[in-house]
Design brief:
mainly alpha; 2 domains; two-stranded antiparallel ribbon; 42% helix; elongated
Length: 306
């Protein structure tokens, strides 16, 4: 529901691809490296790579290109070439090293796994729902995650195990969304730049109504999903999960109605408050600052344009 856009994306990609290259170089046997290369070289977009090329182990550009494949190409592969993605090397890597625990690592330098990627992403809310926090915590002297990496294109053997470690197929998310999704297909990807335009979160109330006259039940959020988000909303039960926010929605609308832009400007002219500080006191941090770090910024933006 919120777009994933990391200011340090090049560094994230470098960390990810270098760790996987180290794994392939050091931990996969030569015959299996050849098989992996052969599988990847058969995919559309890799026509320049000869499956019989003897130099696949000296230049790993083919591997980096595959691991960092963009979302449009992933979508094409998953839709039209799923039969070419049923190799298990990366699924094994995901299960046995990347996501197995804080003390298991992808690379021989023991510096990279799901924990380090999540920390480097610096995201604290689930992009699928923006309704639950993500965290890396320490319990009884052990590092634990309250978040998971969802495979947008599932890693199951009968589906897309070859994409299990592709960077843009790994979506940091909450356990609720991952559990609800499982291997079901959803349509809107948080890496799609337009994902935030596909919902309009607001209750179905008449414009201009006095919010004081409404009950909490009148303020239930409707997602008004369109396009590919219709599937996401249904599979992840987003509208149902937001039903608990009716009191918060009513409070936001009430404050917005009481403190219009004109009212805030009047208070500022009187020297009582700074308009921007009063907005923060009333509504919290603006979305440009809070997105990815606080819950429900999309909902707040749609309700009160803040």
């Amino acid at each position: 529901m919120i777009a994933l856009s990391f200011p340090n994306i090049e560094e994230l990609q470098r960390m990810h691809s270098e760790a996987i290259e180290d794994y392939v170089r050091q931990s996969i046997s030569e015959p299996d490296r050849r098989k992996l290369y052969t599988c990847i070289s058969k995919l559309p977009g890799f026509e320049q790579y000869d499956p019989n090329d003897e130099h696949y182990s000296s230049d790993y550009a083919w591997l980096r290109r595959f691991i960092l494949t963009d979302i449009l190409t992933l979508r094409d592969w998953a839709t039209n070439h799923a039969d070419k993605l049923r190799f298990g090397y990366f699924k094994d890597l995901y299960l046995n090293r990347f996501a197995k625990g804080a003390d298991h690592f992808v690379d021989t330098g023991r510096s990279y796994n799901a924990y380090t990627l999540f920390d480097a992403m610096n995201i604290r809310v689930c992009p699928y729902c923006e309704h639950e926090y993500l965290a890396h915590v320490r319990v009884e002297e052990r590092d634990r995650r309250t978040m998971q990496f969802d495979h947008f294109y599932p890693k199951d053997d009968a589906l897309y195990p070859g994409l299990a470690m592709c960077f843009y197929n790994l979506i940091p998310c909450c356990s609720s969304c991952n559990t609800l999704k499982l291997t079901q297909a959803i349509a809107a990807n948080p890496y799609d730049a337009d994902i935030e335009t596909l919902t309009s979160l607001h209750p179905d109330i008449m414009p201009g109504v006095n919010i004081e006259t409404l009950s909490n039940d009148d303020c239930a959020i409707n997602f008004h999903a369109s396009g590919s988000m219709v599937v996401n909303e249904r599979v992840l039960a987003l509208e149902q999960r937001y039903d608990v926010l009716k009191p918060e929605v009513r409070d936001l609308l009430r404050k917005k109605q009481q403190f219009s832009e004109e009212k805030l400007e009047e208070l500022e002219r009187m020297g009582l408050f700074s308009k921007e500080q009063l907005k923060r006191d009333l509504f919290g941090a603006p979305r440009a600052e809070a997105k990815g770090q606080e819950l429900h910024t999309k909902m707040k933006h749609d309700l009160i344009c803040y």
